[in-house]
Design a protein that fits this description.
One of its GO terms (cellular component) is nucleus. It is a single chain. With 894 residues, this protein is α+β, with helices and mostly antiparallel strands. Among the domains are: 312 residues, Vaccinia Virus protein VP39 (Rossmann fold), CATH 3.40.50.150; 111 residues, no CATH class. The protein has 31 helices and 26 strands. Helix 12 runs parallel beside helix 13 and helix 12 runs parallel beside helix 19. 52% of the residues are buried. The chain binds S-adenosylmethionine (SAM). The site of S-adenosylmethionine has 21 residues, from helix 8.
């Protein structure tokens, strides 16, 4: 099983400490709001928050209502229901982590216990059940609660259930995830051998799902052939992603930190250093390409209104307009990195067609028949969804624009042809764009002829407008100006006044956008989501660049060319990030005057394209090329000093003496490959603290990355298997202990330092944490334990058979990492994990007769105080190591 089939125990500590327990009370009472469903009554004052001044969220936004009415997002008859549900709090949902060892037990508890005991608690007109499995999610692994989190907290009769949710969340058996957010990975149709790229992955709930699928079918100790590369541009969010996915214990994961629109392809054909065909052959690939790509892009997020009601206040049409370009660029990069025959899912938690159908249409337009929008109407039939829209309109500064033709010239750098349903306008755009280019040149000359970094063609008049529009009064003025401009354009004959109300001029997309899926809240009491499933049917065409150029500014045109070149795999690879151009950043792309920096930050876009970043990108490019010659030698040093500053280097661990001592101490079978699979993040082999195991698939990508000059900025990878141990007495001959998360992978191959305990002794170990050899119920077990070498060891549960002699493991084996001291055995499992494991054993095997605490009082289990203290320190040390790791080796600090 390894990676993924069981989760470790101690390793979950830092995960827990680094995320809120979402089922606990809200630590920020200011954010709390009443749970009455509408919460727009300023006079209501919930009793639940004594002494707190409650400020209700506004749940009105006339602009929002007008926008979606015009877009016909739902029929007129449904409008009231749609709006009413948007104002109600989102019912909680969660997923059972199928990688957790006790996931079946958790599922049984929900099906057999809570579903029945909570029957009486169904409490609103939308639902007849208090909790229910989501019908479209496989194997009853995803659950919908007919309560919001606030209701769970307030209701006494739900207390036991609430406690259950808190504990299972804390130990990592369940993950809270919005129901609709679970959908995209299901449509990706991932198989265990697939190479999957999750382009915008943080905080990682979908990455977790992808890893679960990758690890689904493997036996203990075997790793799947596939892998997931999870990427996010935001450093802080990348760290969340790392902590989230750590619970998966996967050796098949790489976390990277790139702007997705420039995700490197690690093309060997671009390398400055010659690589022989033989070397390329050994690697099995000369460019990074994926079987599956998840493109869950940054978006305006209005599909999450039910759980993030502050969006009511912030929402404006410019948010979607501002993100469209970035979304297209990310999606096109995804298509470029996709293998022919591969599938890509494009998704957003926005309802806005500009961020959805318009982006999908642009992908199809640019890929010119090489990408198909799949009809997946027969997949997940129980998931209620609507067809995509074929027509929509653009709202810009108070104007409705039904066609690109009526976009005022000075807005044409912002409002793009690709935002509109029809691509007929694209031909006319060439002329119009010339105008925009003239504007840009004029602007360039205004600022001394230097080109503006990555800016969309934006005339100075517009910049002035946008500056002024901070002031609300000026927004009105600017909109009036725009109207006047449209009228002038129209009367000049360069545009027809196709504004709202003129239905005869409605544009309809030529693409089969009805195959897209939109989930709206009132269909199944959920949030809203948009999903499109695309398949690459052949390599992108040579003239893709020409075609796309009509819709995109000069900057992006260059980028399209580079992307295309990469797609002609093997023949015309022109390399990675197009460093000769500045990236179109979220911030720049979102240049609508009403979308301020705070809003962008709220979209999770901070750090994108900062000057610092851009400088680094240039530097990275240079150093990356140089780095190639020094494969895994001084490269680590180079990396920390130049390339990917602030990120620990990735190095294969090749210290044979250490590897041999580990193998021999634990009796790790020769059939388990260590060589070539061990990685560290420290270039000083003598001070390596943690050793990570990587699958063959990850190994191959690392090799390619080394060969290509370390294009990938890797923030985390693999599965921690060994940690340097700080034995106080120095008696253990092995310097490295096993880590809990790596144990499931190694377990089937370990033949030394491993014992099988009876159920009673296993329970006692979990309960008392340290037991003297003489105090074990099974004396033979105590004797065997005393004969182990001092240091790290493994105890497996022999399930009451008293089988100290025989150690047999299979997928269901329950095992813990322990420490053999001079007189006793101590577990290296956190208290919470120990407690939870005890409870699971009770649920499976029944409670132990007699209270162990009483036995303790009677002095049955006396522990050598001195050694106990020493072992306590060791345990503490293990915890410290876990925590420091998050800071030193896995946290991106750039
Ligand atoms: C909708 S969230 C992704 C949610 C995630 N897929 C999940 O299921 O947990 C969008 C993410 O895109 C990231 N992002 C924004 N701009 C990006 C860019 N240019 N490249 C990569 N990631 C980006 C944000 O930091 C944010 O974490």
């Amino acid at each position: 099983m390894g990676g993924g089939q069981k989760r470790g125990r101690t390793q979950r500590r830092h995960f827990k400490q680094n995320r809120d327990n979402v089922w606990k009370h809200n630590s920020n009472p200011k954010k709390t709001r009443p749970d009455d469903g509408t919460n727009n009554d300023p006079n209501s004052n919930p009793d639940s928050i004594p002494n707190q001044k409650w400020e209700p969220f506004i749940s009105q936004n006339p602009g929002f209502e007008e926008y979606y009415k015009v877009q016909c997002i739902v029929s007129t008859e449904e409008w009231e229901e749609f709006m009413s549900l948007l104002r109600k709090p989102l019912p909680a949902a969660f997923r059972i982590n199928s990688s957790a060892q006790f996931y079946q037990d958790v599922r049984m508890q929900l099906e057999n216990d809570f579903m029945k005991s909570l029957e009486a608690e169904a409490n609103n007109e939308h639902e007849s059940e208090a909790i229910r499995p989501l019908p479209w999610y496989p194997d009853n692994l995803a659950w919908h609660l007919n309560f919001s989190r606030m209701q769970l907290r307030k209701n006494q009769t739900l207390e036991r259930f609430h406690e259950f949710l808190k504990q299972e969340n804390e130990v990592g058996n369940i993950t809270r995830q919005e129901a609709v957010s679970m959908v995209p990975p299901l449509f990706l149709d991932v198989l265990p051998h697939h190479h999957v790229l999750d382009m915008c992955a943080a905080p990682g709930s979908k990455t977790f799902q992808l890893l679960e699928i990758i690890h689904q079918t493997k036996e203990p100790g075997l790793l799947p052939d596939g892998l997931v590369i999870a990427n996010d541009v935001d450093v802080q969010r990348c760290n969340l992603l790392i902590h989230q996915t750590k619970r998966m214990c996967s050796a098949n994961l790489i976390v990277t930190n790139h702007e997705a629109q420039y995700f490197p392809s690690c093309s060997l054909n671009k390398c400055s250093v010659e690589i022989s065909e033989e070397e390329k052959g050994e690697l099995g690939k000369s460019v990074l390409q994926f079987d599956r790509v998840l493109c869950d892009v940054p978006c305006s997020g209005d599909g999450t209104l039910r759980k993030a009601p502050d969006i009511w206040r912030k929402w404006n049409a410019g948010m979607g307009n501002g993100l469209h370009r970035l979304q297209v660029e990310i999606a096109m990069r995804g298509i470029t990195l996709l293998k022919v025959g591969g599938r890509m899912v494009y998704s957003t938690c926005s309802m806005n067609p500009v961020e959805n159908e318009a982006v999908v249409a642009e992908i199809l337009r640019r890929s010119k028949g090489t990408v198909e929008l799949l009809d997946v109407s027969s997949e997940l039939p129980q998931l209620v969804r609507r067809q995509g829209l074929k027509t929509w309109k653009i709202r810009d500064r108070g104007l409705w624009l039904a066609s690109y033709k009526i976009v005022p010239k000075y807005r044409r750098g912002v409002i793009l042809p690709s935002m509109f349903p029809s691509d007929e306008n694209c031909d006319e755009v060439e002329v119009s764009n010339d105008g925009a280019q003239e504007d840009l040149m004029a602007l360039d000359s205004n600022i001394g002829g230097e080109s503006i970094s990555g800016t969309i063609t934006q005339p100075s008049s517009e910049i002035e407008n946008e500056k002024n529009s901070e002031n609300l009064e000026n927004i009105g003025t600017s909109a009036d100006d725009d109207k006047a401009a449209v009228q002038t354009e129209a009367s000049n004959g360069s545009a027809s006044a196709e504004a709202i109300g003129d239905d005869s001029k409605v544009e309809v997309s030529r693409f089969p956008l009805e195959r897209c899926m939109r989930i709206v809240p009132h269909d199944q009491n959920s949030g809203a989501f948009f999903i499109a499933v695309l398949q690459k049917t052949s390599p992108l065409k040579e003239d893709y660049k020409n075609q796309s150029s009509k819709n995109i500014c000069k900057i992006s045109r260059n980028m399209s060319k580079n992307l295309l070149d990469e797609d002609q795999s093997g023949t015309k690879l022109s390399g990675d990030v197009p460093h000769d151009q500045e990236p179109v950043t979220t911030e720049q792309a979102s240049d609508d005057s009403k979308m301020d920096k705070n809003q962008l930050a709220a979209l999770g876009s901070k750090d994108v394209g900062s000057e610092d970043n851009k400088e680094k990108e240039k530097e990275e490019c240079d150093n990356g090329e140089k780095g190639h010659a020094e494969l895994n030698g001084s490269k680590g040093r180079l990396q920390t000093q130049g390339k990917w500053k602030g990120v620990d280097p990735v190095l294969f661990f090749k210290d044979e003496a250490t590897i041999n001592s580990i193998r021999s101490f634990y009796g790790i079978s020769e059939s388990f490959p260590l060589e070539g699979h061990l990685v560290t993040r420290n270039h000083d082999a003598n001070h390596v603290k943690r050793i990570y195991y990587v699958s063959k698939s990850v190994h191959d990508i690392l090799q390619l990355n080394f060969q290509a000059g370390q294009k990938l900025k890797i923030t985390s990878l693999g599965l921690k298997v060994f940690e340097r141990q700080g034995s106080k007495d120095g008696t253990s001959p092995c310097f490295f202990r096993l880590s809990s998360e790596g144990l499931p992978l190694l377990l089937p191959y370990i033949s030394k330092q491993i014992l099988s305990a009876s159920l009673a002794d296993f329970r006692h170990l979990l309960q008392y944490r340290t037991i003297k050899f003489a105090d074990f119920v099974d004396a033979k077990f105590g004797e065997k334990a005393s004969e182990l070498m001092p240091g790290c060891c493994v105890v497996i549960l022999g399930e009451g058979k008293g089988s100290a002699d025989k150690v047999e493991v299979d997928a269901s084996t329950i095992a813990i990492v322990c420490w053999k001291g001079r007189t006793n055995l101590c577990i290296m499992v956190s208290e919470l994990d120990g407690k939870e494991l005890l409870e699971r054993l009770s649920a499976r095997f029944g409670r132990e007769k007699g209270s162990a605490r009483e036995e303790e009082k009677n002095g049955d289990l006396v522990i050598d105080t001195v050694e106990n203290q020493e072992l306590g320190e060791l345990n503490e040390e293990a915890k410290d190591i876990d925590e420091s790791k998050a800071v030193s080796e896995e946290t991106v600090t750039s």
